[in-house]
Amino acid sequence: MADQPAQTNVLKSLRTWGENSVPPTLLATLIFAQHARPFQPLPMLFPPVLLFSSYLNLSDYKTDAAGITAAWSGLYALLALRRKQGLKNKLTARGVVRGASLGLCAVNVAGCGLAYTFGKREKKED
Questions:
Q1: Which end of the chain is least crowded, N or C, by CB within 10 Å?
Q2: Which one-letter DSSP state was computed for residue 82?
Q3: How far apart are CA 42 and CA 35, in angstroms?
Q4: Higher pLDDT, 3 or 36
């Protein structure tokens, strides 16, 4: 019975994370830092979409923004996990940024997925 409040607190924290506008902006920054030099066109499709998601979130479309962030974070994680990385490369600055972006993708998929699933859309009546 003591686990119930802890689980609820974790789920609430994840949902709050998913309704925030900072995580997609942070992920877009990390993706840009990784793939700008040398320029890689396919991964560079992700930052504009994530920044647009952050804009939607600030425009009070939190549920829709959470769905876009969850979907595109998951897509980027799948794209990034296709490439294998040796242990020696994981300890470089580029490897740390890659690990941080993949970790952020995982948290975004969980938190934004919860926010999208349990989000409420208000119908505006004119």
A1: C
A2: T
A3: 9
A4: 36
